[in-house]
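Before the break, one more example. Copy the sequence into your notebook; we will annotate it together after we see the structure.
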Amino acid sequence: MNKGAKIGVSVIAAAVLLGGGYGAYALVSGDDSGKDGAKKPRTVVAEPPSPELAASGAKAFLDAWAKGDLSAAAKLTDDPDKAQAGLQAFQDNVKPSAVHLTVGGPTTAPSAAASKSASAPASAAASAPAQGAAPTGVLESFKASVEFAETGSPWNYDGVLGVVKMSDGTAAVHWVPNVIHPKLDAGETIAVKPLYAAPAAITDRKGRPLASYPSLTGLLNKLKSAAPQAGDPADAGSGVVISAADAPAGSASPSPSSSATGSGGGKAADVKLFTVKEPKPVPNLKLTIDADLQQAAEQEVAAQGGKPASMVAIEPSSGNILAYAFSPSTGQNRAFSGATAPGSTMKVITAAALMEAGVTPTSPMPCPETTMVTGKSISNDEPGAHPEYTLTDAFIHSCNTSFIEKGKDVLKPNSLPSIAKDVFGLGLVWQTGLSNFDTDIPVEGNMAGAASEFIGQGKVRANPLGMASVAATVQSGVFRQPILVPGMEQKKAARTLSPEVLGNLQSLMVQTVRSGTASEVKPALPAGSGAKTGTAEVDNSPDANSWFTAYSGNLAVAAEVQGGGHGSAAAGPAVSKVLRVGNKG
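Here is what the structure looks like once it is written out:
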């Protein structure tokens, strides 16, 4: 908040004080009526004060100001009304605990601010110039030391007073704003404002800058806007700075007879005069993002031939989000906010549900060529029937009909939503540090509706954030909610898979890379990777969406490419290239 108040200006240039073209001027005060019989007004006369008179006049003014007797100090100037306003504004805004002012002696070098003051009468109501020589004055230097209760460092500065002789034989300080401080010009104010440390840099986990990555723009802007703002009373870490600034809009303007040739058009910026209190330093904010993986993710989503795409990389051991990217980068953040069918990547969760229901990797799961779901014929990517398939075969070759038929036999309508929430954390409300859509797997009222969900179709809605987390949970065995800022609260899942089911699920994903649908991905995934392809058919779309989720070491990645076709054709290569960069944290 700008606490500054405009200090009224009455100007006689230093050049006039030292000799000029005007005669005596009347000192207009509220105490003088100007009527016949009233006390004659004091006026500035042409004769300069003697050195002794000038020194005593300057000392009397400074002593009264230092004691806080602002009324007395103002009466010792040639414009008491404006001096009173200016001194009071300084006292109210700066709020010093003590002011020490010492006369330094005569000087011949006016302050820079005084030299800017234009020649003008002391008041628009001043009397006409008297005949004779122009008034001259004496410049007196002084030293100021302003103390504050909250700091042991005083504000020390040198100032200059112009002292003129009055018609009653006394001396008076010629009032201009730079009496208070030499850098204060006409039309300016003493402003006391909060001072904030330079905004903390937002970096990746290794301290590297992130501003060059287009997908992160929204996150960086959000974090910057959350920083303390000027005038925020809740921010106890702000400092205090005293500045010379333009008077705020709506405040009283300088008198018509006053001007400052150096300030026309306003200041470009406040001139800092003194820092009362330094702000508390703001540490850099390190995100969980890894710049190397972020760069790779940005490149892969941008390389999809203009097709909308998105990707998320997660560290399974922590839940830290190491990268996310989406294209076009000026559109929706599909990586976090997308809500589309994830296709066969959902079979990772369905397979876990089947195994918890007693199905083993070697249990028969025949793969008919087609099956019916809610009156719609469902087929497979690979033509032909495979009555010899086991769960392993159905998983690594992604047989839709196998999962639908076996799911109808051994699962319940709520089986998939329950295990997704209780083990994989899908359906919990995640606070990642950025707005996100939580994967939605509705509980259907009957098996006909639930059957489509077993293969990631129907009403299931997800995004790469959710599916990367699924792969991360399989890799580590524990759901760790994805986060972007280290230390954020992470929701916990109700339980984990049994060691046997977890080991079998990991084996199914590894075998998918070795000899299943993920083996077709070029470049090949790193050795030991586990993966699942997904080909999601979307109504009214001529091409299926390409999905892929995988893990390698302590890194899990998922991607989707709208209209990209089979999971191994578009999303798979993109994920493979990011996995090959690796988690080198």
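DSSP finds 16 helices and 19 strands in the chain. The CA atoms of residues 361 and 504 lie 7 Å apart. Try to locate both features in your own notes.
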